[in-house]
Amino acid sequence: MDFAATKRMFELPEGMVYLDGNSLGPLPRAAAGRVARTVEAEWGEMLITAWNKAGWMAQPRELGDRIGRLIGAEPGSVVLGDTLSIKVYQALAAALALNPGRRKVLSDRGNFPTDLYMAEGLISALDKGHELVTVAPEEVASHIDDDLAVLMLTEVDYRTGRKHDMAALTRAAHAVGALVIWDLAHSAGALPVDLAGVQADFAVGCTYKFLNGGPGAPAFIYVNPRHADTARPALSGWLGHEAPFAFDLAYRPGEGVERMRVGTPPVIQMAALDAALDIWDGVDMQALRDRAIALSERFIEGVEAACDGLTLASPRDPEARGSQVSFRFEEGYAAMQALIDRGVIGDFRAPDIMRFGITPLYIDEADIDRAVKVIAEVMEHRLWDRPDYRERAAVT
Ligand SMILES: Cc1ncc(COP(=O)(O)O)c(C=O)c1O
Ligand SMILES: Nc1c(O)cccc1C(=O)C[C@H](N)C(=O)O
Asked: What residues bind pyridoxal 5'-phosphate, as annotated (predicted)?
């Protein structure tokens, strides 16, 4: 894999080391032109005929298949649309309907809050006595029992980068008759995923992080082919109908994963994502993973050798991590502001986690070494120790 070539495919501001692609990927160079073409030559020239002529209507499935290759999904089992929060709701609603005799939904306390909020909202809307149980991540396996309806987990923890064993947990849940939903927000484009191999029931994920589809890029949902024609989409919008343009008054779910579509797809966002996926089409996920591990190990070794104050919050075993490295430091918020001011972009998650995404498509050894040097300077000279850093407002 020529990662120097993939790096040239991104706009990266001069002098910046961008270690936040686990939250928002950078701009693929081709994206601006692709978006402009969609706006000018398609929307501008073709107007409504572009839904057919420019293939807008088919894009949620076509782009879904390109993402499907990266996550080991069967062709035709992934579709794009909406936000990840909405796709979590849809997947859980469909899974609960496929397991009507049981009431327990199991997740872990490291899960991203929106997944848990959506589960609570769905449970209260259903009003059938379901219960969301959240346990410590390492205790998930021991809470898989005969009451379990659905196991709903995010594979890679957004704070620590700790990775669940997707194959083992899926097997354990299936052995007790439960269904499994994987949130791949921090996995898609970060590491190899084998949805078909592990026989996951549903998976969901976003495209604005490691996949570099841009802010607000649509989410995706995977439905295992064995459920594709029986899963109830829950959000029964017209574009998930079997024949949307028949305008029937009665809802009939579409064929296969198409039924998970809800409403009008975000065409301009999909244009940006299309350009991002052109880069991914040439990527071997195992080669990417190997390089991510090598870069992460270099980063951890460098930081640990140079900085006393930072404690590794991610698993030390690279196989047990996703593609991010996190350190704990009680003044982590201020330290991250000091790094950002010096061109090293990571982020902070309360109470004390400094998070760095390792993304080999555009991060190389020189970037890692530069980041280590700047982190060492900030720590050694207490450059974080400024009231304005502690008080600086940030939403992300
Ligand atoms: C695991 C996980 N689920 C969901 C989301 C967010 O979902 P949405 O795209 O709806 O904002 C994130 C990050 O924003 C996430 O990390
Ligand atoms: N989705 C985000 C957004 O709309 C704004 C700011 C950040 C995000 C994120 O993706 C946060 C991310 N899921 C996290 O791991 O913390």
From this structure: 84-85, 112-115, 154, 183, 186, 208, 238, 264
Q: Could you tell me the CA-to-CA distances from 186 to 128, 163, 236, 328, 365 in Å, in that order? A: 32, 10, 28, 20, 22
Q: Where exactly are the structural domains of the chain?
A: 3-28+284-391, 57-281
| Tokens describing residue 247 | 């305008």
Give the Cα separation of 328 and 66 in Å (integer).
Answer: 36
ipTM of the complex: 0.97
The reported pLDDT for the residue numbered 395 is 74
- Top CATH class, 3-28+284-391: alpha beta
pLDDT of res. 40: 98
**Could you say which ligand is closest to the alpha carbon of residue 161?**
2
If you ran DSSP here, which 8-state letter would residue 118 be given?
A: H
Position 90 confidence tier, pLDDT thresholds 50, 70, 90: very high
CATH fold, domain 57-281, is Aspartate Aminotransferase; domain 2 (3.40.640)
Q: Is 348 a known active-site residue?
A: no
Does residue 158's CB lie within 6 angstroms of at least one atom of ligand 2? Answer: yes
Give the residue numbers of the binding site. Answer: 84-85, 112-115, 154, 183, 186, 208, 238, 264
> With 90 as the cut, is the pLDDT of residue 1 above it?
no
